[in-house]
Write a structure and sequence with these properties.
alpha+beta; four-stranded mixed sheet
């Protein structure tokens, strides 16, 4: 396990280029299985979650090779429809192989997924939806936690999602692409990563209407073809670095930013006092004052404020000039970071039953030894360390590498004193 050491107190200044999108890459990597050929993914981030997806591809008999940030995937020699339990436990996004393998092989064996400890995140919506597409399901193993699905043919149907789940929407799309007939998804997730999955599949020969809306229609096709696709920049990484400027102060330009997909984040950061301007895919953010409080910040499905930015905004608001409230509506265990920030002097009260955090801003945070409970919480603690006085050690920082290519490199380029270090020397 590794840690990150931050010597705080400095402002951020400079520019950096935003990496490719994690949440777009993962479903698209799973989707490559639907094409019996070669897929070229450009601007693919070299992060742990992508490496985990590649590991699963190789277990299934496929190959994947890097050329800088271009990932070349060959799925012609798929030899298995079983995803190993050890691989699935490491990352929740592995559940997307459920729909992809069903689509290609008409069967799949996969365990319940793992990932960050931010809530239960059941996959009932996935399974209930796919079952309606002429797919039988069995639950095997001592704990009935191995899902085995099979079908003689996938049949298009109408799917009504009780909640606009991103993963369920993506799994239904993946299952339906090579089906017979038409599948219509009502109350589909509208996140940009769903749109990008649809864009990729359409370029590979799928027939999909309603991309980016709450109503998606997929007409099954016989086969897909080889495709070269460029992944978009990562909206959460962009928001993370913007939040760092809001917390620590500074003047930063973020090149290759997904400006139109982070409207809600930009609106919130403007409310806390940041000067934000965008042009030609670049964002310039300046902050020369203590953050302003927010009376009520609520996480919501896209286009609302993303749950993946909640921890970073908690860090910002812990330094605000007044009292703020955050309400988490997506996951029930995403306030673990509040207890880490309190070690640094933050004043935060968590009301667990209401999934609400009340933050009374303090003038300064003080360096401390804290723990990264999940990917975004870890990034938020790096921000806290940059804004704090003294030295902060973020333990179990490996989790940050699940979504950030090199968070220390990026912050160093903006003038921060940040580096990885071994936990056994702390």
């Amino acid at each position: 396990m590794s840690s990150i050491r931050v010597n705080g107190g400095g402002r951020l200044k400079g520019e950096l280029k935003i990496q490719g999108s994690k949440n777009a890459a993962l479903p698209i990597i799973a989707a490559t299985i639907l094409n019996k050929g070669i897929t070229v993914l450009k601007n693919c981030p070299k992060i742990l979650d992508v490496y985990h997806m590649i590991k699963i591809l190789k277990e299934l008999g496929c190959s994947a090779d890097w050329d800088n940030n271009t990932l070349i995937i060959d799925t012609r020699e798929l030899t298995s429809a079983k995803v190993s339990e050890s691989s699935v436990r490491k990352m929740r996004s592995s559940i997307l192989f459920l729909g992809a393998l069903l689509g290609r092989c008409h069967e799949v064996s996969i365990a319940y997924p793992g990932g960050c400890s931010i809530g239960k995140r059941p996959i009932d919506f996935h399974l209930d939806s796919i079952k309606k597409m002429n797919v039988s399901q069995e639950f095997l193993g001592e704990d009935k936690d191995i899902i085995y699905c099979r079908t003689d043919k996938i049949v298009g149907t109408d799917i009504f999602l009780k909640f606009p789940s991103v993963g369920a929407t993506q799994n239904v799309i993946l299952t339906a692409v090579l089906s017979e007939g038409v599948t219509r998804i009502f109350n589909a997730a509208r996140e940009p990563e769903v749109l990008e999955l649809c864009n990729f599949l359409v370029e590979a020969g799928a027939r999909i209407c309603g991309k980016g809306t709450a109503f998606i229609e997929i007409e099954g096709v016989k086969r897909l073809h080889d495709v070269e696709f460029t992944l978009p920049p990562d909206r959460i990484v962009t928001g993370t670095y913007m939040a760092a400027v809001a917390a620590a102060g500074g003047d930063v330009i973020l090149r290759n930013s997904p400006v139109h997909h982070i409207d809600s984040v930009i609106r919130v950061l403007k409310k806390v006092g940041c000067d934000i301007r965008s042009a030609d895919g670049d964002i310039r953010i300046k902050c020369d004052r203590r953050p302003l409080p927010l009376e009520n910040l609520k996480t919501q499905p896209y286009p609302g404020f993303p749950t993946d930015m909640q921890s970073q905004l908690m860090t910002v608001l812990s330094l605000a000039d007044g009292k703020s409230t955050i309400i988490e509506t997506i996951f029930e265990s995403r306030f673990q970071n509040a207890y880490e920030l309190k070690k640094m002097g933050a004043r935060i009260t968590v009301q667990e039953k209401e999934n609400k955090a009340i933050i009374s801003g303090v003038r300064k945070l003080t360096g401390a030894t804290v723990k990264a409970h999940d990917l975004r919480a870890g990034a938020a603690l790096v921000i806290a360390g940059i804004a704090a006085e003294g030295t902060t050690i973020i333990k179990e920082a490996d989790t940050i590498e699940r979504g950030y290519e090199d968070i220390c490199r990026d912050f160093k380029s903006l003038g921060a004193d940040v580096c990885f270090c071994s936990e056994n020397i702390i």
